[in-house]
Amino acid sequence: MDVTGGADPPTPPNSGEDTYPSFCAGRSRGLGELDAYLTQCRACPRLVAWREQVAANRRPAFQDWEYWARPVPGFGPPDASLAIVGLAPAAHGGNRTGRMFTGDASGDFLFAALHAVGLASRPTATHRDDGLELYGVRVTAPVHCAPPQNRPTPGERDTCRPWLTAELGILAPGLRAVVALGAFSWQALLPALGAAGWRVPRPLPVFGHGARVTLPAADGRPDLEILGSYHPSQRNTFTGRLTFDMLVEVLDRAAEAAGLRGPEGSSG
């Protein structure tokens, strides 16, 4: 793939090298090229081994599935004004279906809430070809491979960061708001936004459910609203730490900040 437009583009590193993400992400001219490079990445040996092991040892309920077992790209339109940043694909969710937050309980909770505020065409997400559409929203993550125990290491987060930085940079002309789902997402998002050209305050703002920070406009970009929410993990939703109404409230505020309205003309 020639991403430079020249006759002799530089040769990317092998997809298993830790320089692969920064090299390829920084040269991607659009989300299509970015996603194409991302899905070939093998830069984190532990994550590669785990995602492929999970695919080889499927749950009984998914024995008939051909697992995606690759890095999972973001999902949503290229002109999204709202980004939602999670943690990483679930082993038997996104790692199986090949789409963020698709095929697991966290995704069911998230997409039902997005549908409730008019930002998704349906309240469920089961597979890549289920017809789900997002309205002005891009869903992504700071780590694109399923990690063991849903816990990426700091090194894996940092190796994967160029993909998120590039994705945010491509979305930048129209991006107005970002929702970080969980403390890990919040802590990974802010440095990525700084690397993508926004002015991030120091010390970094503290995460909390309902937290909100405005990043001032820079380089002709609009101000960017950052909102925090607890992650819709089963641990949080089963215990009531995060209720459906709590998530809907954050998403409704984010939709307002992003200037979004659903097909019926209202985000509420």
From TrEMBL:
Family label: Belongs to the uracil-DNA glycosylase (UDG) superfamily. Type 5 (UDGb) family.
Molecular-function annotations in GO: 4 iron, 4 sulfur cluster binding; DNA-deoxyinosine glycosylase activity; metal ion binding; uracil DNA N-glycosylase activity
Gene3D superfamilies: Uracil-DNA glycosylase-like domain (3.40.470.10)
One record GO biological process: base-excision repair
InterPro entries for the chain: UDG_Type-4/5 (IPR051536), UdgB-like (IPR044147), Uracil-DNA_glycosylase-like (IPR005122), Uracil-DNA_glycosylase-like_sf (IPR036895)
UniProt keyword annotation of Iron-sulfur present: yes
Keywords: 4Fe-4S, DNA damage, DNA repair, Hydrolase, Iron, Iron-sulfur, Metal-binding
Ranges for region Disordered: 1-21
Residue span(s) of domain Uracil-DNA glycosylase-like: 73-251
SMART domains, per the entry: UDG, UreE_C
Source superkingdom: Bacteria
Protein name (Swiss-Prot/TrEMBL): Type-5 uracil-DNA glycosylase
One Pfam family of this chain: UDG
